[in-house]
Amino acid sequence: MTRSRLFVVISVVLCLAFVLAGCGSPATTAPETQAATTEAPAVVATTAAPATGSETITVIFPKHEADIKGAFESRIKEFEKASGITVNLIQSDWDSVANRVVPEMATKGSAYDVVEFDNGWVAEWCGAGWVTPLNDYMDAGYTDGMIPGLVDLFTCPDGKVYGIVWNNDTRFFYYNATKLTEAGFTDPPKTWDELTSQSLAAQKAGMVKFGVAPFWNQEWSLANEFHFYTYVFGGTLVDDKGCITLDKDPNTLKAVQYMVDNLKNGAYDPAGLTYNQAAAQDIFLKGETLFMPQGIAGLLSYTTDTTISNVSGQIKIGLVPSTATGSSAALTLPEAYAIPTGSQHKEAAWKFIQYMTSKETDKKLAQEIGILPIWVDLFSDPDLTSLYPFWADFQAQLSTARGLSKITWYSDFVDISNAELHKALGGEQTAQQALDNTASQLSSFNCVP
Which residue from 210, 204, 209, 208 is spatially nearest to 179, judged by alpha carbons? Predict the structure, then answer.
């Protein structure tokens, strides 16, 4: 990669900072399910036998979609060895972790010392007093060199940092170039209408079973997809004051209608109503679908792993298709570590966060499982750019990246919109009815314009 291309990548990452700022253990972890499933696996907690006189902390965060090799667990074991602190690690799918974390935080309990702090919770947690300001523990300038937007996102109005990002989770558009060519197309779709037509043509030619396997099970990932399709179609869910706009915005309606139509016409796998993201990714890696509109940053690395992939050398990175009006977007979903106010081991908890978000750990995790770094200069690290030359292809999508809606009632938004959207996707009501019903049920949370 040339120095000029590296500069562009770094520049765009810094642009992402402003986009985000404007948005919104010896323990054995539960394996992440790669097969399609309708049920989330139960959270599994395994406590290591503490060394004599050692301090034990309990840490809970989701298993990273790309971490099929246990990279995070390996680093936690190294932390235990280096610090003498024992980690009781709890990991599983995102929804199961959230179902434990949120009630515990709301009661200011002391069950956890380090918790998942999702970007969708920032507005609520900043005003609730549930988490500890990390400025009380970090050295001055600790976050210097991190992507500013990731720091700003988890900085509350009081100016203090309450979370350090562990997962710089921006999603990218992937396609099976080999199968696309065999279906008679020389280029990936530039528009969503082209994505539909190419999907149907490739299916007819016997190249794939479906164009896309959506992950539209009723969990938080469906709300992510709702945001993604709304953004790419130029719609809005709430305005900058938190006022509900989704029921009145014609572009939001177009987004939902597109989702509904592609299940009806067969371009999208109808079983996607039961898939989570891991299941959809697994199907793509098996070569059964043509496109992955929202793939994790490390996905390309796993295409070469023959234990999970049948598509080595076939996958390329493209741009998210645009609409007829030219709108497009990518979704970014960063997750952070935070220390609950109820923790009885805050110093040890900070040592864990410091170790797991250090530049050394960030680089190792990038090398092992392809996650996007949180430290700016790692994007120009020769060890990483030689390993991931395709990072340069991420630049156009990074410039359009947007986060989730910043509303204090985000959990209610997810529960209600998921239920109504799922009815529309299942043919039980129209797209407009889904939006109207969602807005009606959320009216008690609405702002005063």
Answer: 208
The CB density around residue 230, as the number of other CB atoms within 10 Å, is 24
| Whether domain 3-169+332-402 has CATH 3.20.70.20 | no
DSSP letters along 288-317, please? Answer: -BSEEEEE-TTHHHHTT-TTT-S-TTTEEE
Name which of 273, 413, 281, 395 is nearest 13 in CA terms: 395
Any idea which fold 172-330+409-445 has? D-Maltodextrin-Binding Protein; domain 2 (3.40.190)
| Same topology between domain 3-169+332-402 and domain 172-330+409-445 | yes
How high is the mean pLDDT in each 10-residue block of the chain (449 residues)? Answer: 42 45 38 34 46 81 87 96 96 92 92 95 89 94 90 91 94 96 96 97 97 96 96 93 93 98 98 95 97 92 90 95 87 94 96 97 94 91 91 79 88 96 98 98 82
In angstroms, rounded to a whole number, what is the distance separating the alpha carbons of residues 62 and 167?
Answer: 10
Residue whose tokens read 């690290």 = 381
Domains of the chain: which residue ranges?
Answer: 3-169+332-402, 172-330+409-445
Query: Would you state the pLDDT for residue 449?
Result: 62
Burial class from Cβ neighbours inside 10 Å (0-12, 13-18, 19+) for residue 150 reads buried
- Total-model pTM: 0.80
